[in-house]
Amino acid sequence: MRFTILLTLPILAFMTVAAAAQADEQEGRIRILEDRLKTLEERYSVTVQSLHAARLEAAIESEVVRKLKVEVERQAAILAQIQKTAPGSVSVPVAPAGAAAPDSIDAFERSTFARNAAGSAYRGPVRLPDFAGRDRDYANYRTRLRTGMGQGANFAGSLAMVEIGCGTSCRFAFAGDVRTGQVYSFPIGGEEYYSLDLRYNVESRAVIAYWISNQRCTRAVFTWTGTNFAASGQSDIGDTETCYRLQQR
Question: pTM of the prediction?
Fold first, then answer.
């Protein structure tokens, strides 16, 4: 018995030291990631503010700025994953075996767009919103709406979807009818719908939305009825990396 105890003590001491070293390494990695994330967030914020100040709001959706935003979101997800699995915390649940694979996501998008086919795309003159009257509620976004709608329809035959950033991993959207100039609010957006990603095209009345909620990638379909959007089919399709991979496609 005494021999066993004497043999066990050094082993326990070694395990304690090893665990402490591992915890220190984990904390060091977290600090590095926090610093990296802070730097990226500051870069993104300064970039967006500079573009707003220069009245270059359309450039906020440029490829360079979008890539910076995706990298901020990716680093935030990595940091959150490590913090969740740090000593004393609860590990993040992994995606279930039935999580959507890329090919099944593609198939879902194709079939959804096809089932909700729109009429032929409107090719006539573009009519802009009446910000002094009917569309006064959207006057704060007049520059973005005029720019977006001026480029013509990109959704449901005659609508222009105009997406606007509202900070890191934050966006909301409007749908403007280029035939009448009338503006409609898209039903979801803002900080509650983290990393919102909208998929749509001019030949379909469906918008497929992806966003992150509770460390899971959520998908839902919003169908244009002619006067508003009808929501359906909200589902969990995987972990956060599922959403991040989709954004890079």
Answer: 0.62
